[in-house]
What we know:
Layout (H helix, E strand, L loop, with lengths): L1 H10 L6 H37 L13 E3 L1 E3 L3 E3 L2 E10 L2 E5 L4 E6 L8 E2 L4 E5 L2 H58 L4 H55 L1 E3 L4 E6 L6 E2 L4 E7 L3 E8 H8 L9 E8 L2 E17 L4 E8 L13 E7 L3 E8 L8 E6 L2 E6 L1 E6 L2 E5 L7 E3 L12 E3 L14 H5 L9
Parallel strand pairs: 1-24
Antiparallel strand pairs: 2-23, 3-18, 4-13, 4-17, 5-12, 6-8, 6-11, 7-10, 8-9, 10-12, 13-16, 14-15, 14-17, 15-16, 18-22, 19-20, 21-22
Helix pairs in contact: 3-4
Amino acid sequence: xxxxxxxxxxxxxxxxxxxxxxxxxxxxxxxxxxxxxxxxxxxxxxxxxxxxxxxxxxxxxxxxxxxxxxxxxxxxxxxxxxxxxxxxxxxxxxxxxxxxxxxxxxxxxxxxxxxxxxxxxxxxxxxxxxxxxxxxxxxxxxxxxxxxxxxxxxxxxxxxxxxxxxxxxxxxxxxxxxxxxxxxxxxxxxxxxxxxxxxxxxxxxxxxxxxxxxxxxxxxxxxxxxxxxxxxxxxxxxxxxxxxxxxxxxxxxxxxxxxxxxxxxxxxxxxxxxxxxxxxxxxxxxxxxxxxxxxxxxxxxxxxxxxxxxxxxxxxxxxxxxxxxxxxxxxxxxxxxxxxxxxxxxxxxxxxxxxxxxxxxxxxxxxxxxxxxxxxxxxxxxxxxxxxxxxxxxxxxxxxxxxxxxxxxxxxxxxxxxxxxxxxxxxxxxxxxxxxxxxxxxxxxxxxxxxxxxxxxxxxxxxxxxx
Length: 467
């Protein structure tokens, strides 16, 4: 028991003091090393600063001034007419729906009556059974012939009555002479009163005969008038029947293209049924819409809008067709849904390709108004929509301008710029007054050594499309 207690007492014996001294020595060494490192770094920095401060200064080079190579144009004032580009479509100015003018069974139809087929003027399209119409024509002719016979009969009676009237008048004249002689003889006693009365009775009979002939002539004349009126009515019936017979055959009124057809052999064609729809290829037009601003400019120009030439371009695959035309009329109403005025221009039939059809999409170019005493420059010459830069003594000088119109990469402007001024045509990322530049030897629009007048090359008198 005593041994056990002694061993436990030995286990809790405290650490000797020489261990604490060792730890203190190690800490002191680490601190000295750290201070030494800081001193070395500080001395290095101070030494480098001293070396830099004692370094001899090198002479400074003057700053290099950047000179920008640019292209320029020399401009001149003139009168310019830009082109307005609008998009429209082809329409046919002559189209028709051919309807059946008579009813009946279709007994023949042209095999070419297919959508898109071309029909020549006068070609028969369909034929309708004309049996009933030929019967009506025969009946009308018979009635007319019967009336003509009655008229001939009346005329013959009239002729006979007129002849008998002439004879009756002669007899009346003889009876009157005989009565006059009898009256003379009665006064001399050579004739009795009874004999005079007999002659007066004979004169009365002759007068009655003349009156009867005149009455017969009046009656026959009235009958003749009635029959002639009936003949005129029957003649109209004959003409109507002839027209009905002719209407059984429908013909193309002009050369054109079939849009649609319902003609089939055996089909009954009723009155006003549409049999064929077609349009003329010789009378195509371009329909497009000018904005209110464009219409206002062009319509107030010195040159009228009606009669102004257009250039229409139709692209099919890789082929582009140019069709010239002329503005013929202005739409009756403002096209509110498209925000402008509808314009119709007839197309030159000689330029129309055979494969074009109504509805084809067109690019239309129309001459805008004339801008007088203006200048034409490239669009890239304009900065901030209202500034250009002139090149003078190889430096830039700004000018405020007003853009009047744009035209195929060019701009027509007005402002403090005129004949002989050289305008910057290169687009620079940094631009300002006084910026040094070096103009190119060849200005835009002038071939090197070609001797082309720059003004006419950059500012042509009239803007035309070069194909």
